[in-house]
């Protein structure tokens, strides 16, 4: 056997071992969930969701509860997507949460009381979708951090930059989470884009996401 053949064989064997290890982890999780919920519809989808997003359940009762919420939200997603609306829903890392829980999480995001925009007599189009202009950034994931205010801020700035200079950028939400507290923002417990803009204006610079990455998941 040549040296090249031996190296290739070792690489293939290593890949197969890694794949087998991953499969074993999923298989064990599938078996555990099967023992709790039985051969129910979508139990495999739930197991694969839990495996993909690294969910850990401490008890039989928690598995039952999370599985029920998963099914309810999956039903809601499918019902919504059949309506042919302008947007679609999908499975992500928070599908196991109660919908009302997401609505009532305190995020310190009270709206500003007064705007400072100056209205003009410009004629506006009946509709405008900035996605069609290619300036809207891809969807990002805030994880478990209540930092929606940072994503609103960076999304607006990224679109404005793309519109002005003809190229896209990705700005750092984590910089706002870590550094904008002096402007009445509360890291993962909420804040306001208007106050984030004040921080950016005062700070004088803003990092790209690749150099100041999100870590508050």
Automatic annotation (TrEMBL):
Q: Which SUPFAM superfamilies match?
A: Cysteine proteinases (SSF54001)
TM ranges are 85-106
Q: Which residues form the Peptidase C1A papain C-terminal domain?
A: 124-217
Choose any GO biological process term that the UniProt entry carries and state it.
proteolysis
Q: Which residues form the signal peptide?
A: 1-20
User: Pfam families in the record, alphabetically?
Assistant: Inhibitor_I29, Peptidase_C1
GO MF, one example:
cysteine-type peptidase activity
**Residue span(s) of domain Cathepsin propeptide inhibitor:** 46-94
Similarity remark: Belongs to the peptidase C1 family.
Q: What name does the UniProt record give this protein?
A: Cysteine proteinase 3-like
Species name: Nicotiana tabacum
Gene, per the UniProt record: LOC107779938
């Amino acid at each position: 056997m040549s040296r090249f053949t031996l190296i290739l064989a070792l690489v293939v064997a290593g890949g197969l071992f890694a794949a087998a290890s991953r499969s074993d982890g999923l298989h064990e999780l599938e078996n555990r969930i099967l023992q709790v919920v039985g051969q129910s519809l979508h139990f495999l989808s739930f197991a694969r969701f839990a495996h993909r997003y690294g969910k850990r359940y401490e008890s039989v009762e928690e598995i039952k509860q999370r599985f029920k919420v998963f099914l309810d939200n999956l039903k809601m997603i499918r019902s919504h997507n059949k309506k042919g609306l302008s947007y679609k829903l999908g499975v992500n890392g928070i599908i196991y949460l109660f919908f009302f829980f997401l609505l009532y999480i305190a995020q310190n995001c009270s709206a500003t009381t007064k705007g400072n925009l100056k209205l003009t007599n410009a004629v506006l189009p009946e509709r405008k979708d900035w996605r069609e202009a290619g300036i809207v950034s891809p969807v990002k994931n805030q994880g478990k951090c209540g930092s929606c205010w940072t994503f609103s801020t960076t999304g607006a700035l990224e679109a404005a930059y793309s519109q002005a200079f003809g190229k896209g950028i990705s700005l750092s939400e984590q910089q706002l989470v870590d550094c904008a507290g002096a402007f009445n923002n509360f890291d993962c417990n909420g804040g306001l884009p208007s106050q984030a803009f004040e921080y950016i204006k005062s700070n004088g610079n803003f990092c790209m996401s690749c150099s100041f990455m999100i870590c508050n998941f």
